[in-house]
């Protein structure tokens, strides 16, 4: 059945965390409201932000050597060009040159829109081009960067 959900908030953006997309919402009389269809025993989780999620950025070194550490910074940016003022759910994938997920792949909370991961490269990690992909799980926006691991 359809249901109307409202929260006491003057305005903002609503994201369906199950479907990874923004949903249409209307602000009126200090409330933010949106409609949702729920099947039997079905639930949803929503995230409400003041500003829209615009993009995901990744900063990392272009090259690192085996045995060294590489700092990876993920930023979830809002539509004003600033870090999102929320804890954004992010999936980070670190993929080695053989196409396999590496140790630091996983799910994170980007507090205040930012996340820093220190990748400690092992002495026996595969040399070559590594892929770092971050997906913000409220909007589904993704960024990809590459880092070369040298011997």
Explain how this protein is built.
- Strands 8-14-13-10-11 form a 5-stranded mixed beta sheet, with no helix packed on it.
- It has no helices and 14 strands.
- The model has no long low-confidence stretch (mean pLDDT 91).
- By secondary structure, it is mostly beta strands.
- It has strands at residues 2-8, 13-16, 21-23, 26-28, 31-37, 46-49, 53-59, 63-65, 69-78, 87-95, 106-111, 114-120, 128-136, 142-150.
Summarize the structure.
0% of the residues lie in helices and 58% in strands. The protein is mainly β and 151 residues long.
How is the topology of this model organized?
Layout: E1 2-8, E2 13-16, E3 21-23, E4 26-28, E5 31-37, E6 46-49, E7 53-59, E8 63-65, E9 69-78, E10 87-95, E11 106-111, E12 114-120, E13 128-136, E14 142-150
Parallel strand pairs: 8-14
Antiparallel strand pairs: 1-5, 2-3, 2-6, 4-5, 7-9, 9-12, 10-11, 10-13, 13-14
**Uncertain segments:** none
Portion of residues in helices? under 10%
Query: How large is the share of residues in beta strands?
Result: over 45%
Order of helices and strands: EEEEEEEEEEEEEE
Mean of pLDDT: 91
Number of continuous helical runs: 0
Largest sheet: 5 strands, mixed
E-strand count: 14
* Backbone structural class: mainly beta
C-alpha termini separation: 59 Å
Radius of gyration, Cα only, in angstroms? 19 Å
Give the strand order, joined by hyphens, for the main sheet.
8-14-13-10-11
Q: What is the 3D form? A: elongated
